[in-house]
Specification:
The complex is a heterodimer. By secondary structure, chain A is an alpha/beta fold. Chain A is built from eleven helices and nine strands. Chain A has a six-stranded mixed sheet with strand order 5-6-7-3-8-9, sandwiched between helices. A three-stranded antiparallel sheet of chain A has the order 2-1-4. In chain A, helix 5 packs across helix 6. The N terminus of chain A is likely disordered. By secondary structure, chain B is mostly helical. Chain B has two domains: 210 residues, ABC transporter involved in vitamin B12 uptake, BtuC (Orthogonal Bundle), CATH 1.10.3470.10; 114 residues, Arc Repressor Mutant, subunit A, CATH 1.10.10. Helices cover 73% and strands 3% of the residues of chain B. In chain B, a hairpin with a 3-residue loop joins strand 3 and strand 4. The relative contact order of chain B is 0.10. Classes of the chains: A alpha/beta, B mainly alpha. Chains A and B meet through strand 5 and helix 4 of A and helix 7, helix 8 and helix 10 of B.
């Protein structure tokens, strides 16, 4: 199932911004995401929606090469990841970060500039100015020197958003940026995401809250271990599609996954 | 210089300082990665490599020995990961299995080859700092201890590598997924840190031996982390602690005529204890002081509020509920806040009114928004009253559309 590209006037398809082709992902030997085909061809706010354990985060990690693909390919504007890395900004899940680590909010945002600095160049005045600027854009200029663990959950997510901004990317991939965040911070984060869309960037957000999904995203993909549906939000978030995503129909996929992992057969 | 007694001590102190700085620098990265004991594991696991290199004719403290140690460190980590993949052994248990077996192999090799190699098991275990100045090589016409030359080379190399790659270390340690997504070679960065740990550890053998080298790696960084909250500052402070510990430890050991390595480790631990006690925010003293300050404020505010309520109802103040509140009452009289039997100075009244105001606002808010019966309102208000600031009080007031007065019909004092 693809969120198909609109053919241009000339009749040839534009190169999609992100293209998952038959992507299957496994943790160890256990497949957790099966045969995903997904095409996102224009800048927009794109939501990846599904229940817990559906493989939403895994899809992002697979796109970024953080978990290996068992099968399939991911291309960014027609390029493989290795060539496209510098065009992608990533905000990882809260749990993957050690919040007691001795870095300030400013230090974290500065990390966003490391990709373009290469391996050995040290960040200079230009990078510092950019980091300060990005912190200001998420409204956190006044806590720049605070240790990251001493900020509220919403502030921490905004710091990570600022880091992604500092990457000056064309494509932003955000893993649950609204998790553990108060309503006010959610609005602020959404405003920044909307401004990125207005600036012609693609913003892909893993999200779990159906109520806000309908109002925030232009397009969504419903995922539960496989792609259920993808396309404009209004046409995808139908009762029928939601039932197919949230009713646990994929028990068979889980069982087969476990059987693969254990080199056994399903009972 | 090495031929005078004072010169010898200076060389020993210089060597210890250089080694301590190198270990603290590497140790900072291990500590903030929550992998402190990796230093211990590597410190033990490198022994067979060193022993085999020396047996094969390498000079202790030479490049070949460091190379063999790095190889051992990488083998250790590789084996731990292999055990986890193949046998499902948890990482800590795997490290326990691997580094002890490698260390045991090292002990066997050293004792078997004792007659042929210039490597004494007890030197490796406890360090030979006192002996360092006796083994010298000429450097530019000056006789310099071999141990100093090799550790200075280690420190110079580590600093030369750490400065340009610091940002990669910070990013990989803090957020490995984010770093990999941004194209940071996280695996190479981690391998580099392992190699650096092995090199620093071998240098540490000279000073404090294999057992106590983990103190040089971990303790200064752990102490520094209590005091500063940015990684480069943690590293610099850790190096300062380590060098200070090395100098003071050596001098104390000389005075007490005991093992320099042991005393250096003791001094490092003493530094840690002082840091843990005195850290401005999270230190034990600060925490206890904070609790005492708060209890004292609560006692004062309770006393003032009791007198204020007595004035309001033209009765006598409720008697103090604790010894601390008694003390607070006495103190408030001394300071002139409480006057006579049941009267307040202007300042005392203002303070009391803000406590009563907080109390009654909270009761009113709970009564309105939580639908609690009247008898449920007083206890929560009794502790919340000490925690509401002016902004919170004004917000609560704005949410109580109805007129003044708490649920018991008493007036809520206005904001001062």
């Amino acid at each position: 199932m693809t969120d198909s590209a609109t053919p241009s006037a000339a009749g040839d398809r534009p190169v999609p911004l992100v293209e998952f082709h038959d992507v299957t992902v496994a943790y160890g030997r256990r497949p957790v995401l099966w045969n995903v085909d997904l095409v996102i061809d224009a800048p927009c706010l794109f939501g990846i929606i599904g229940p817990n354990g559906a493989g939403k985060s895994t899809l992002l990690k697979a796109a970024l090469g953080l978990v290996p693909l068992v099968g399939g390919t991911v291309r960014f504007a027609g390029e493989p990841l290795a060539r496209a890395r510098h065009t992608i900004g990533y905000v990882p899940q809260r749990e993957s970060v050690d919040w007691d680590f001795p870095v300030s909010a400013f230090d974290v945002v500065l990390m966003g500039t490391y990709g373009r600095l290469g391996w050995f160049r040290r960040p200079g005045p230009a990078e510092r100015a950019s980091a300060r600027d990005c912190l200001a854009r998420v409204g956190l200029a006044d806590v720049a020197d605070r240790q990251i663990g001493r900020l509220s959950g919403g502030q921490q997510q905004r710091v990570f958003l600022a880091r992604a901004l500092a990457q000056e990317a064309a494509i932003y991939l955000l893993d649950e940026p609204m998790a553990g965040v108060d309503a006010r911070s959610q609005e602020q984060i959404f405003d920044v995401l909307a401004s990125l869309r207005a600036a012609g960037r693609l913003v892909v957000v893993v999200h779990h809250d159906l109520r806000t999904a309908a109002e925030w995203f232009d397009r969504v993909a419903l995922i539960d271990m496989r792609l259920v549906a993808a396309g404009p939000t209004a046409t995808v978030l139908t009762p029928d599609n939601l039932r197919r995503t949230y009713s646990g129909q994929v028990e068979l996929l889980r069982e087969v996954g476990l059987a693969v992992a254990e080199r056994g057969r399903t009972s | 210089m090495a031929d005078t007694a004072g010169g010898m001590h200076l060389w020993a102190i210089a060597t210890a300082s250089v080694v301590a700085a190198a270990c603290a620098l590497v140790g900072t990265l291990l500590v903030v990665r929550r992998q402190s004991l990796l230093g211990d594991a590597i410190g033990h696991a490198v022994l067979p490599g060193i022993a085999l290199a020396v047996l094969a004719g390498a000079r202790p403290g030479g490049v070949a020995v460091f190379g063999a140690a790095v190889a051992c460190a990488l083998v250790t980590v590789g084996l731990v990961q292999a055990l986890r993949a193949a046998a499902g052994l948890a990482e800590d248990a795997g490290a326990g299995v691997v580094f002890t077996s490698l260390f045991a192999a090292g002990v066997v090799i050293v004792t078997l080859g004792a007659s042929r190699i210039d490597l004494d098991a007890s030197c490796v275990l406890y360090g030979i700092l006192e002996m360092v100045p006796f083994d010298t090589v000429p450097v530019g016409g000056v006789e310099v201890p071999r141990g100093f030359v090799s550790s200075a080379a280690v420190l110079a190399t580590l600093v030369a590598v750490a400065v340009p790659t610091w940002k990669l270390q910070v990013f990989s340690a803090f957020d490995p997924d984010g770093a990999r997504a941004a194209g940071v070679p996280v695996a190479a960065v981690t391998t580099g840190l392992l190699a650096a740990t092995a090199v620093a550890t071998v240098a540490g053998f000279e000073v404090v031996g294999a057992v106590l080298v983990v103190a040089l790696l971990v303790v200064p960084a752990a102490a520094a982390e209590l005091l500063v909250h940015r990684l480069h500052r943690v590293a610099l402070l850790a190096v300062a602690f380590a060098v200070g510990g090395a100098i003071v430890g050596y001098l104390l050991a000389y005075r007490w005529n005991t093992s320099a390595g042991g005393v250096i480790a003791v001094v490092l631990v003493a530094e840690y204890v002082v840091a843990a006690l005195l850290a401005p925010e999270d230190g034990c003293v600060a925490q206890v002081a904070g609790r005492i300050r708060f209890a004292w404020r609560v006692a004062r505010e309770d006393r003032l509020a009791a007198v204020w309520r007595a004035m309001e109802q033209r009765g006598t103040p409720a008697s103090p509920r604790s010894a601390l509140e008694h003390l607070a009452g006495w103190w408030l009289r001394v300071r002139g806040r409480i006057v006579g039997a049941a009267s307040l100075s202007a300042a005392g009244r203002r303070e009391a009114e803000m406590v009563v105001r907080s109390h009654r606002l909270w009761e009113a808010w709970l009564g309105r928004h939580a639908d609690l019966p009247l008898d449920h309102l007083h206890p929560p208000a009794e502790w919340v009253e000490h925690h509401l600031g002016e902004a919170a009080r004004r917000r609560i007031e704005a949410e109580l559309e109805h007129g003044r007065g708490d649920p018991h019909g008493r007036e809520i004092p206005p904001e001062a």
